[in-house]
Amino acid sequence: MPFELTILGSSSATPTSERYPTAQVLNALGRFFLIDCGEGTQIQIRRQKIGFSKIQHIFISHLHGDHFYGLIGMISTFNLLGLKKDIHIYSPSQLKDIIQPQLEFLKAGLQFNIVFHPLNFKKPQVIYSDKKVEVTSFPLKHSINTCGFLFKEHPKEANIKKEYVKKYNIPIPEIIKIKRGAGFQTSEGEFIPHEELTTPPPRPRSYAFCSDTAFHPPVAEIIKDVDLLYHEATFTEELKEWAQNTYHSTAREAAEIAKMANARQLILGHFSARYKNVSPFLKEARAVFPNTVAAEDGSRYEVGE
């Protein structure tokens, strides 16, 4: 099953001719999660051929305009397309008040409910979970209340070795127990441990989104061993003081978080429009964390590869 991230926007406060403001879509085992919704998100979703009807869960990290100004347009498009399933929005509680007047204007023809889920800015909290995926929000360090998001695949059950099923004629109820961690006792009284009967399942995949934030080491423990990390890198080290004053990170600081978290791969993004190319970001980050790439609008990344 796919676990794939699509970058829709990778610029910071203002868009450029090549980069839209922050927005991403994560396809986690067939669940399509929209992460932030800057201006132009609809256009990028069209370009990437992502079906609007697949998106029911929207995560808004904070209430700076470059992270949510595309939201009311998205909601309007959902309505014009005749979508009827509820839309769930995980965001700061104030977002409901901000867009309520616009929603009231659409209300006469709105064909679905919008369910708001307020974020917790004091500690990590599971905000979504189903049989296959869990999403945890966690506080970041920014000029206003901001959350990051950790998307994790639930652990799969172990795979039972077919030769043992045949050899010991293991019944289906016992197979289910074995997959969940039990051993098996044969009709002759011999006990076969779980580890011998099975092969380990694939390691659960995970993706973490960290934008916007100043350098904040506590995040590293929350996202420990994450497969793919997107971390804002608005500036390079030459503007570190400016990054600190605006509660943003440099490319080097993003790489340090990735290293502390033992991430497998780092994606840099949220680049300031003052930079004409991202080579300095990559050079700076790779000196600390070699497996680093720079986000490009429209690029896709397999989580866990």
TrEMBL record:
Alphabetical list of InterPro entries matching this protein: RibonucZ/Hydroxyglut_hydro, RNase_Z/BN
EC nos: 3.1.26.11
Subunit structure: Homodimer.
Cofactor: Zn(2+)
Protein residues bound to Zn(2+) 2: D66, H67, D212, H270
Name of the protein: Ribonuclease Z
Record bears the keyword Metal-binding: yes
Classification via PANTHER family: ZINC PHOSPHODIESTERASE ELAC PROTEIN 1
Role according to the record: Zinc phosphodiesterase, which displays some tRNA 3'-processing endonuclease activity. Probably involved in tRNA maturation, by removing a 3'-trailer from precursor tRNA.
Residues the record marks as active site: D66 (proton acceptor)
Pfam families, per the entry: Anti-Pycsar_Apyc1
Listed NCBIfam families: PRK00055.1-3, RNase_Z
Binding site for Zn(2+) 1: H62, H64, H142, D212
Catalytic activity: Endonucleolytic cleavage of RNA, removing extra 3' nucleotides from tRNA precursor, generating 3' termini of tRNAs. A 3'-hydroxy group is left at the tRNA terminus and a 5'-phosphoryl group is left at the trailer molecule
Taxonomic superkingdom: Bacteria
Keywords, comma-separated and alphabetical: Endonuclease, Hydrolase, Metal-binding, Nuclease, tRNA processing, Zinc
Record flagged with keyword Hydrolase: yes
Protein family according to the UniProt entry: Belongs to the RNase Z family.
Matches recorded under Gene3D superfamilies: Ribonuclease Z/Hydroxyacylglutathione hydrolase-like (3.60.15.10)
GO MF annotation terms: 3'-tRNA processing endoribonuclease activity; zinc ion binding
Cofactor note: Binds 2 Zn(2+) ions.
